[in-house]
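User: Can you predict the 3D structure for this chain?
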Amino acid sequence: MYIDEYKRWQSVTIEDKDLVSELQEIQNNDKEMKERFGAELSFGTAGLRGILGVGTNRMNIYTVAKATTGLAMYVLTQHNPHSVAIAYDSRHKSELFAQTAVEVLVANGIKVYLYKTLAPTPMLSFAVRYLNCTAGIMVTASHNPAEYNGYKVYGADGCQMTSDAADAVQKNIQQVDIFEDVKRIPFKKALDEGMVEYIDEELENVYYEEVKKQSVNIEVHGQAGLKVVYTPLNGAGKVPVCNILSKVGVQNITLVTEQEQPDGDFPTCKYPNPETKEAMALGLEYCKKTNADLLLATDPDADRVGIAVKAANGYELLTGNEVGVLLTEYLAKVKTQKGTLPENSVLIKSFVSTGLADVIAKDYGIDTINVLTGFKYIGEQILALESKGQEERFFFGFEESYGYLSGTYVRDKDAVVACMLICEMAAYYKLQGITIKEELNALYEKYGYYLHKVDSYAFEGLSGMEKMKEIMQGLRNTDFDNIAELDVISTEDYLESIKAKKATGKTEKINLPKADVLVYNLAGNAQVIVRPSGTEPKIKVYFTTRANTHIQAEEQYTKLAKDIEKILA
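Assistant: Here is the predicted structure, written as structure tokens:
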């Protein structure tokens, strides 16, 4: 069947020369043909994502056009007037895919608003709500390697699509023939006839003003003389991050030259992900040269930010959990001091993120809502507050994978506001004569040491997805008494919505949406969470250990990780 599909692609006129070349290169390679034509890219809550190339299982103008046709069918069932906002990042063919989506949408009678140049994901979320659009498309593969691209799809609320909406789009896509059922109007014609409209500077300036409003201590920026090194990792972050830091008064910013300009090859690191040491390496060199207080690094679509701070022995990378805890403490402290913390404030975070934030929030009288992994679930909780007229109760939101949000102007993680607040926090503590690292240590001394680690296990190719399913099912079929000699206290299965207590055998209902997640609660407040990634062919394992010292927590993690690796092998 995949050979027939390959031949069909050979028989049509392919517009993209890169695809034509690839068709020729693989014509005598059965394995490569099967990889590209043996399956179709699946559309889910994270949208569409895959390796660039020819075929139904690759990201190209034809798979983009087919998926966008399915999206158009869905949009036309939603509220009038029908319109979609589109943005794109620095990846290869991002602008081309954005224009392809425009061509399909306008051919289906749908108005399109398009960012003229690179824009980060949070700006897309903002535009959807500001322009009252039915949906939004962000052409990006986030922090994946250079050979990937994709697009995230947003609903009218500015959140990434819900499961129900994504299922409806996927059902539509399955009805579309990739060549025969796709309508397109040439981009230039759509532009000339006003069917697509470029998003202007006015909207961008409103976005920046909304970000600026999230500052709780703006005066410290100009007082502390903070030295910042910033890298956009060759992505879309340079203009918006530098713009907002300039607006609040951060004056001493050094850009990492090699990673400053947009470049889809990401030549300095394979994974342009601020969670990895490799991506931060050049920035750390710049920190040493300039004696900087702080390193900021945003991913290609500028919704995540990683940081490094001065420590006793040079510079130290902080985890997403640590930054989330620090921002929770900082915002709560300053708002309490200034009397600007609303009553019944709510911290919203993913359930795989650190419990230390819950403890700190409670000390300030702030409630915590834990949601499934994925920022859309945080966005949904903000929407729920908004629907009750209680939008101001939203205090802060974060997830351990380096995503943060203050304010309700967007409904996704925003590295632009996060960069501003991290700089503000660093300046605030610098004026007190302490570093961010010293403040973090003070929190650990007060509350105990919380260690969080995330390990990923990759399963590449078509067989990889099947292997991941087998592993998850195998875990569900196994009743573990202990992991790394720590007794299993209870197990939570979010696919079955059940929490089972080991000692009593009793079960409780989990009141969260179904998800392919298993949680093992262990003796000593340790925890192991296992889930397949929603965006990559990986199984992610989240470890939590709590102890009096870092060394003790690390030793416990090492034992847990070795045991889990054997189980997943």
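The first strand starts at residue 48 and ends at 51. The domain at 449-568 is CATH 3.30.310.50 (TATA-Binding Protein).
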